[in-house]
Design goal:
Strand 7 (about 155-160), helix 7 (about 165-170) and strand 8 (about 180) form a beta-alpha-beta unit. Strands 4-3-2-5-1-6-7-8 form an eight-stranded mixed sheet, with helices on both faces. Strands 9-10-14-11-12-13 form a six-stranded mixed sheet, sandwiched between helices. The relative contact order is 0.11. It is globular and about 55 Å long. Helix 2 (about 40-50) crosses helix 10, helix 6 (about 140-150) crosses helix 7 (about 165-170) and helix 14 crosses helix 15. The termini are far apart. Helices cover about 40% and strands about 20% of the residues. Residues about 335-350 have low confidence and may be disordered. By secondary structure, the protein is of the alpha/beta class. The chain folds into two domains: about 1-235, UDP-N-acetylmuramoyl-L-alanine:D-glutamate ligase (3-Layer(aba) Sandwich), CATH 3.40.1190; about 240-409, Protein-Tyrosine Phosphatase, Chain A, CATH 3.90.190.20.
């Protein structure tokens, strides 16, 4: 009942904002991007391609909003802002003379009516993996919420290789005949070897993000040559596989905070750094969020990491030690059900250490790193604060690494 009342409040706010700002999305071609992982990269790349093609475009992403020549902070730990801010930025985009707007959209925003009144030209789902089950209760309900973005879009685009494809296609088939798909393995409308076309090496998860952006840009009518040139010149958003130190050992910061994202980024690191180099993984899970994913994150880490250092990550009013103990259940269970069969033969020491203070945890990782090792710090990425209890403290993983390295030198 409380949730329904809150959602009603969001709906009333959205309706009022639409009226106040004159339904601005009707004068734009809005491209919505949702999914569990890869939303920010896909959103940012679509924006970059359209900008490179000379189109007038703005965007809202997890990192920031870029409208015209201005950059806006959308709030702490926020992807899709409140409805009033969404409509305000859409109106600002119209006033800037934009034709397109790329909107990163969360399942919470969809469920809570924060994007009510937004007309979507294109809707993209990157993937649907384990996340937010505390809120949506089941994977199917989570998927159905995501599908709402596509039901309201003129052109829906799905990941053909993702486990959610068949479920989403069933939900959409009565509403759309123009469903488009992209993929690397199964037959899809857009099955393109981006690596081969551009002679570059990309982690598999980035190949999917880039392919989704390629499909959207091509369907808009952007010339393929411009699309490919834009992909090649694209730089990942802050805190996405960001190398913050590259010396005798390497330090990478990434926003990965779901089981699938952890698995994929560690897999990418392992592929780029073959044996006998070690992967030292520093991470945790957010408090007052999906508890069920915590052991899955531990199990995902155990597949590729050689050393796990469990620490703090916005634990809020939960006990960070208990959060890490739940993660450790997955670290210590070698054949955990989440792990895909192709990875079960991978050796894992099952060893971890717990250092709650995140700065000290990063220092420990740097102290034990040997030549050729890779430290990867996940969960915070670009974020600039850390929630302890009910208070936000200034924090930046990248700066924390620099602080350790300065004191070490």
């Amino acid at each position: 009942m409380i949730r329904k009342l809150k959602n009603l409040g969001h709906l009333l706010e959205a309706m009022a904002a639409c009226v106040y700002y004159g339904f601005p999305s009707r004068r734009l071609k809005v491209i919505g991007v949702t999914g569990t992982d890869g939303k920010t990269t896909t959103t940012s790349l679509i924006y970059h391609i359209l900008k490179s093609a000379g189109k007038k475009v703005s965007m809202i992403s997890t990192v920031y909003a870029k409208v015209g020549e201005e950059t806006f902070d959308t709030g702490l730990h926020t992807t899709t802002p409140p409805a009033s801010l969404v409509q305000k930025l859409l109106k600002k985009s119209v006033d800037s003379g934009d034709e397109y707007f790329v909107l990163e959209t969360t399942s919470h925003a969809l469920d809570q009516n924060r994007i009510y009144g937004v007309h979507f030209e294109i809707g993209i789902i990157t993937n649907i993996t384990h996340e937010h089950i505390d809120y949506h209760k089941t994977y199917e309900a989570y998927g159905m919420t995501k599908a709402a973005l596509l039901l309201g879009a003129k052109i829906p685009i799905l990941n053909r290789d993702d486990q959610s494809y068949d479920m989403l296609r069933r939900l959409l088939k009565l509403h759309h005949r123009g469903l488009q798909s992209y993929g690397l393995k199964k037959d899809a409308d857009f099955r393109i070897d981006i690596e081969k076309k551009l002679d570059i090496k990309l982690p598999e998860f980035n190949q999917y993000n880039y392919l989704a952006a390629y499909a959207a840009a091509w369907l808009i009518g952007i010339d393929e040559k411009i699309i490919l040139q834009s992909i090649k010149s694209f730089k990942l958003p802050p805190g996405r596989m960001e190398i913050v130190h590259d010396g005798a050992f390497q330090v990478i910061v990434d926003f990965a905070h779901t089981p699938n994202a952890v698995l994929q980024v560690l897999k990418a690191v392992k592929s780029a750094n073959p044996e006998p180099k070690r992967i030292i993984h520093v991470f945790s899970a957010a408090g007052l969020r999906d508890v069920s994913k915590r052991p899955l994150m531990g199990a995902a880490s155990a597949v590729f990491s050689d050393v796990a250092i469990l620490t703090e990550e916005d634990y809020r009013t939960e006990d960070p030690k208990k959060i890490n103990e739940q993660i450790a259940q997955g670290l210590l269970k070698k054949n955990f059900q989440y792990i895909p069969p192709q990875y079960l033969k991978t050796n894992s020491t099952g060893k971890y250490t717990m250092i709650i203070d995140r700065q000290r945890a990063i220092k420990r990782a740097v102290d034990i790193a040997a030549d050729g090792d890779v430290i990867i710090i996940t969960g915070k990425g670009h974020e600039q604060s850390l929630c302890r209890g009910t208070k936000e403290y200034p924090w930046d993983d990248r700066q924390a690494v620099k602080n350790v390295l300065i004191n070490k030198s």
